[in-house]
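Assess the record.
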Amino acid sequence: MSVTHPKKTYKLRQLLGLKRVLVLNIALFVMVAWGFSGELLRNRDMQDEVDRLQSQADQLSAKNSELADFGKRMSDPQELERQARLKLNLRKPGEEVVVVNGISDSSQPVTGVVATALGQDGSGQSNPQKWWHYFFR
């Protein structure tokens, strides 16, 4: 017959009680860590979304200022008429339109064949004088 000592039983129960508390503490820690990591990931996703929306807002703001500048330019009657002439082939009554190919901007100097045709070849001679020199010299 074996008799268990009350001191050994008490220590055994105390040890088992500590293991239960440790397991419960670990389970509680895992649950808190799980919730914290989920919130951390959600926060990172929200920050990425905020950054994307901020970038989109900056792009829209730049486009808005471009459109405002375009609106200011188009409110000028001279610019409006110039655009209508270029894009819609507007002409005033009695006005004849001449298209010269090869010249993209009127602010550039006229050169070559176009300059000769316009009498701007730099020779300083009138057209009849040029013909005279062409046939008789």
In short: Confidence is low (pLDDT under 50) at residues 110-115. Residues 6-74 form the longest helix (69 residues). Residues 4 and 130 are 138 Å apart (CA to CA). Residues 8-75 form one domain.
